Protein: Thoeris anti-defense 2-like domain-containing protein
Amino acid sequence: MYIHQATKKAVKENKMMYRKNVMQIHGKIIIGILPTDSYVTCLIAKIKDGKVVDIMSHWNPTRDDLVAKDWELMDRPLQKEWPEDKLNRFEIFNT
Structure:
């Protein structure tokens, strides 16, 4: 599906999205995108063996990302705290 379709569906179903054709798998490491309501950024989660090992911000989609139709959804891994609320209040940048 296209990025706008994946984003709407990910938000509705509380999931993450990724591009099937460029998904990074090295030793079962997956990079997933978590859409947010912040104008600042979306979150990027590095997932290994079904667990979040790192959460980063400032994902910048490429032109290819924006027009690609290989976006898919995945369940959000269990994570004690997702920084979405902080991100929406800009606190993530002051920690």
User: Anything to note?
Assistant: The first strand starts at residue 15 and ends at 19. Helices lie at 3-13, 63-67, 84-88. Residues 3-94 form one domain. Residues 89-95 have pLDDT under 50 and may be disordered.
